[in-house]
Design a protein that fits this description.
Elements lengths: L1 H18 L6 E16 L8 E9 L5 E8 L5 E4 L3 E3 L4 E5 L9 E2 L5 E12 L2 E9 L6 E4 L1 E3 L9
Parallel strand pairs: 6-7
Antiparallel strand pairs: 1-8, 1-11, 2-6, 2-9, 3-4, 3-5, 3-8, 9-10
């Protein structure tokens, strides 16, 4: 009985994190909040080969605007989203090409080797992760190290 009470309390705490707004900094325009290197896409196309996927969750308590930019090794833009709205508590995914793992926005970048990515947002309380995934496998991938540029108040990443 104690175990299930503890499990319930943990699940309630986790649910609370996703639904309770955290203090956020509002930027006057889109600001880079994350960068990462190691972006890779082998150019295989939809649900095949390898792709890079970025997932972001908004916990700011506000509607935010988000933009994901994929850069090639020389800094050239290989693909990007237009600025799009993301509601509080919402998680979005963007990939260099379609995968079986996510219901994502597909950037159709074509091949990218030694690339980088930028995540831009109008709020600091958006948290993201990135990974190179085997697009044809729903459970295989390698995490990319994301560097936070504009820290959210009271958080450590």
């Amino acid at each position: 009985m104690k175990k299930s009470s503890f499990a319930f309390a943990v699940s309630l705490a986790v649910a609370s994190v996703a639904t309770t707004p955290v203090p956020a900094v509002t930027f006057g325009a889109l600001a880079t909040i994350y960068v990462a290197s190691g972006v890779y896409d082998d150019g295989s196309g939809e649900n095949a080969g390898h792709a890079t996927t970025v997932t972001c969750t908004n916990v700011s308590g506000f509607l935010v605007h988000l933009r994901i930019v994929i850069l090639g090794p020389a800094g050239n833009v290989e693909g990007s989203t237009i600025s799009f709205p993301v509601g509080h508590g919402t998680t979005v995914a963007v990939s260099t090409h379609g995968t079986l793992s996510f219901n994502e926005t597909n950037l159709l970048t074509g091949p990218v080797v030694h690339g980088a990515l930028n995540v831009e947002s109008t709020q600091s309380a958006v948290f993201c992760s990135a990974m190179v995934v085997a697009a044809g496998s729903p459970s295989s991938g390698v995490a990319l190290h994301m560097v936070r540029i504009h820290a959210d108040p009271g958080t450590t990443e």
